[in-house]
Design goal:
Layout (H helix, E strand, L loop, with lengths): L5 H9 L13 E7 L4 E8 L5 H12 L6 E4 L22 E6 L1 H11 L3 H6 L18 H22 L2 H9 L14 H8 L2 H8 L15 H7 L3 H18 L10 H4 L42 H12 L7 H4 L27 H43 L2 H15 L6 H8 L3 H6 L12 H9 L8 H18 L8
Length: 492
């Protein structure tokens, strides 16, 4: 019955998920006999990987005996070690395990199980007490008080587990701590919830037991009751939990009202005062259908004649936007009969739209927005096509020879180091024909070419001569060579 992964239980509790105990598929059943009382208990969720310490933890739920005084043996009188597992001790399905207790607690357990209250209190469960053992005679006063408190707690755990309500109540009144825990973190409330004694649970709760206390596996008393299927204990625990929550609830402060709540048209307050203003609140979102208004048909009984006179005298007759004679048509006369409706007279008050009218208006607005978006998209496409056509026409106007010359000029400008001076001069003059007919043309020299920028960045050589001066000399030699060929070069 032990949960192999207690950390997962805590994580599920933090996330607010309910704990559901699931039996392992490889679990088997064993029997445990308590030698002190000759009682037999059955555990049906034992598996081979279970440690002996986990088995003792489950035996607290099954027997009510705390883990600190348990001694287990199997096949022989040797005590099973807590760090060993069930497999290493050769447990088989249906085997019988012996549960012994320390000799100093054996008589106490027998008295509690037999429900002998007087006998139990003679065995030292309260402080002070005349009960003593050979070992207790050598204890200090503080150690003896702790020993008596432990005996009283063990008696309370067994009494709560066995359902002895009178003994439980007497032990609590004698000063036994109801919230003390076993080494595994269990309280008497856990043990009573596991066995299904609702009266014991109720007694412990109303005598100060902590309903939210958890053991080392993360189980609370309510979780234990649900695990072992005790609906009575669950109902008591739920009821007590809600009662505690109700005690902590404080009445809410008086919330101030809004203006329209103080001056509601259903109250006579709005008719008092010199201004006699009408307050109302629109609770609908902007754009929602408003099917009611001040001029909507009135439901129920017609207002009385006094009501009509008071309204006309205090508000409507003084208002420049309304006509009292027209408003009289909506109120009965002194006889209580409404005047006949004059179909020819048109009311100046605008009738609120019906739902169909409002819906049609909304659809019309959506249609206009969609139409405007469509026109805008078409206008953008038209402008884009016009720009493409314009670029295409400009490209077609350029002749092939002019286009080829421009491409060649761009290539020479990008890489001036790989172009020969003669070819460069010829291309700048318009080809071979231009070179032959324009002997007096100028030779284009690119002073800021890539090579010149690079040489300028190198600075000077070790001899102190600038690299850029060397390039200038080379350009002067090329210019002289061009002059000899009949082409006038521009100055460097």
């Amino acid at each position: 019955m032990s949960n192999p992964k207690p950390m997962n239980i805590r994580k599920r509790q933090e996330k607010g998920k309910p704990l559901k105990y699931k039996k392992r598929h490889d679990a088997f059943k064993i029997h445990v006999i308590v030698q002190a009382t000759e009682e037999k208990f059955t555990l049906d969720d034992v598996y081979n990987d279970m440690k002996i310490s986990q088995l003792k933890d489950e035996l607290e739920f099954a027997t009510g005996i705390p883990l600190s005084i348990q001694r287990l043996s199997y096949l022989d009188e040797g005590e099973l070690q807590d760090h060993h597992d069930v497999r290493s001790n050769d447990f088989v399905p249906g085997c019988i395990v012996q549960l012994k207790v320390w000799p100093m607690y054996q008589e106490l357990i027998e008295a509690v199980v037999a429900n002998e209250i007087d006998w139990v209190f003679k065995l030292g469960v309260t402080n002070p007490s005349d009960y003593h053992t050979p070992a207790s005679d050598y204890m200090t006063k503080r150690a003896r008080a702790a020993w008596l408190e432990e005996r009283g707690f063990i008696a309370l755990c067994l009494a709560a587990h066995r359902g002895h309500e009178e003994m439980v109540l007497k032990l609590i009144n004698s000063g036994v701590n109801v919230n003390r825990k076993t080494p595994t973190g269990k309280t008497p409330l856990h043990l009573a919830s596991a066995t299904g004694y609702g009266e014991i649970v109720n007694t412990l709760l109303y005598n100060g037991a902590d309903i939210n206390a958890e053991d080392k596996n993360g189980y609370s008393a309510l979780t234990v009751a649900e695990r072992f299927g005790s609906k009575v204990c669950s109902r008591y625990l739920f009821q007590f939990q809600w009662q505690q929550r109700a005690k902590d609830i404080k009445p809410s402060k008086k919330v101030p009202m809004f203006a329209h709540q103080y001056h509601d048209s259903a109250m006579p307050v709005w008719m008092r005062g010199g201004r006699a203003q009408i307050y109302f609140s629109k609770i609908l979102k902007p754009g929602e259908f408003e099917g009611t208004a001040l001029n909507a048909p009135k439901g129920g009984h017609h207002p009385s004649v006094a009501h009509k006179k008071l309204r006309n005298a205090t508000h409507f007759r003084d208002s420049p936007d309304s006509n009292a004679s027209e408003l009289d048509d909506y109120f009965p006369d002194e006889s209580g009969v409404l005047p006949p409706i004059n179909k020819k007279k048109k009311s100046q008050v605008k009738r609120p739209p019906t739902y169909d009218e409002w819906l049609a208006k909304q659809k019309e607005i959506e249609r206009k927005v969609a139409l405007e978006n469509k026109k805008q998209n078409e206008e953008e496409m038209r402008k884009k096509m016009e720009e493409e056509e314009k670029k295409k026409e400009e490209t077609e106007k350029l002749g092939y020879e002019k286009w080829l010359a421009q491409r060649e000029q761009e290539r020479l400008e990008r890489s001036p180091r790989h172009s020969s001076p003669v070819k460069h001069a010829a291309s700048s003059l318009g080809g071979a024909d231009g070179y032959a007919s324009s002997i007096g043309g100028a030779l284009a020299v690119h002073h800021d070419g890539a090579l010149r920028v690079y040489l300028r960045s190198l600075g000077k050589s070790k001899a102190g001569v600038a690299y850029e001066d060397w390039l200038n000399e080379k350009e002067m030699e090329i210019n002289s060579l061009v002059r000899q060929m009949g082409v006038r070069a521009p100055p460097v």
